[in-house]
User: Fold this.
Amino acid sequence: MDPMPEELTDRSWRPERAVRITDALELLLDDLELRLADEDPLPPDPLPLGTGVAALDRVLAGGIHLGTVTLLEADLAAQSDALLYSVARRIDHPVLIDTPSLLVAARWMMAGSAAVPAVAVKTAHLSSNDWRAIVDNIPDLADRDLLVSATDSLLGLAHVVATHDADVVLVQDLGRFGPPLPTLAALVRLAAHEGVAIVAATTPLGELPHWTSDRVERVLFLDHCLGSKATLLHPDPLEMLSTVEIDVECLTGTVA
Assistant:
């Protein structure tokens, strides 16, 4: 075999090379994020969007707001997830729900819509009544203006939000993107620049920095009765408390 030409072995010269499409997309998303950071953020919308969940709307004085992030903070992830999926099924606005798994998200959406335990859907141990309930409720679920994604990075989430038409973005398991405060800061920027209302389920975050005061709403879960009942608590800026009692059905991922 002939030796490689000298110019190809010269480390001072970098030949053309191919990269995986995922690497190219990451470069593009990095560029988009930098340019978004240079734009003036949209002001929060003063008019609330109703979530379709009466208890949540009551504790938030009407609903969620475009350009802001609402945190659903619970020790039991099943509770905040149930509220998140209930909003996804009921809200009367274009919505994107971002979850760790498309299949799991579809399972919980189906279970909640048909009032069938999600574990029964997972194992396919369904009675004739369960099947009938699923069949009866699938058309309404399919007709919803609802998108589902399963991103694995904040850049991926930002790309999906920027390239799809949704007023409301629901994020399951905030912690899967990394440390909570940097993740929250990224979501605040995303909500402000895209003009969307973001609702994120998370474990309790404790005291938040001052920069969250005008862009972040908090709803805390106070758990009782082994997860079947809870109190939604919202501390307002005047340090007064708004509370609403809810029933949580963790098997189907619904609240009432």
User: Anything to note?
Assistant: The longest strand covers residues 216-224.
